[in-house]
Structure formats: structure tokens, C-alpha cells
TrEMBL record:
May be involved in both secretory and endocytic intracellular trafficking in the endosomal/prevacuolar compartments. Keywords: Membrane, Transmembrane, Transmembrane helix, Transport. One of its GO terms (cellular component) is endoplasmic reticulum. InterPro entries: Prenylated_rab_accept_PRA1. It is a multi-pass membrane protein. Its main location: membrane. The lineage of its organism: Eukaryota, Viridiplantae, Streptophyta, Embryophyta, Tracheophyta. Belongs to the PRA1 family. This is PRA1 family protein. The keyword Transport applies. The chain crosses the membrane at residues 64-97, 117-150.
Amino acid sequence: MPLNSASPYGALPSAKPQLVSRARSLYAARRPWRLFFDISAFSLPFSYAEAMSRIRQNFNHFRVNYALIVLTILFCSLVYHPISMIVFLVVSIAWISLYFSREDPLLLFGRIVDDRVVLLVLSLVTVVALVFTHVGLNVLVALIVGVVLIGVHAAFRGTEDLFLDESEAAEGGLLSVVR
């Protein structure tokens, strides 16, 4: 890890998570909803191979849109579970404050807590919250509905009008010679 000499704690490992900047760039990579819901782009695939090719290409192109749809479905699945929503709101605030938006190292009883420990503890707290609020099946069904909707959209949306930008092409699109 690079050292952060500007830290008030001296030369400590930089604790600024790269996930924050990555999350911002991923949200910026969201495709316009008008393109996502373009009715004229929908058609039946001619074969299973074409459907799978469409699914791969659409998933790569619309991955942020798909993630937002799954999160919205998950949120809607908790509407009738107000206690669960409150618990998950508290857990989300913990994730945001303790992991995503923290720039300085986390100090607990005068010791620096590693980001991996914070990630592990927050993950365990999230799983325990799922178990104790009895919404595990509800969340599972919401995730299945989201995956099915994404699969149907990705299989039936044509890919003829989708173009890769330079960074996508370099990451394994048109310039990839090894698959």
C-alpha cells in the first residue's frame, strides 16, 4: 500500500478506499435509460448462441443500469418490512461511514483497524441482519426476479446499435485476441 505522508497519524498506509472513486466512475458509466428502453432495438434472437452473445454484450454495456435495477427491486421487496428497512438503513450508514467514505485509518482503542477487518465485520453484520430480520427468502426472491428480468432484457435487446468506447475495447472488447 502506498504511504500517506500527509496523514495526521504520520506515515501510515493510505486508507482511502479505491472503491469510492470506482463507484463514482461506474455510476458515470451508466448508459442513458432512453437507449436502455429503446423499443425498436428489441427482437427475437435467432438461436441460443445469438441469445448468449446478446446477453454477454448487453451485460457488459448496461452493467450499471442492471445493478441499479436489481437494487431498486431489492429495495421494493423490503417495503412491507419496515423493521428490515430500518435495520438495512442503519447497516447501509455503517457501510458508507466506516468503509466507503472514510479517508483516514479507523482507530479503535488507539490501534489502527485494517480495511479487510472492517470489510469482514460489516459483511458479517449484514448477514446477521438478514437472518434476524427474517427477510432472507424475500431478498433471495427479489434477487431471482432481478436476474430473470436482466436475462430477458439482455437476450431480447439487439446489440447492433451498441458501440464500445476505447476503454471498453481495451478491456476485452474488439481489441482482445485471447478469449
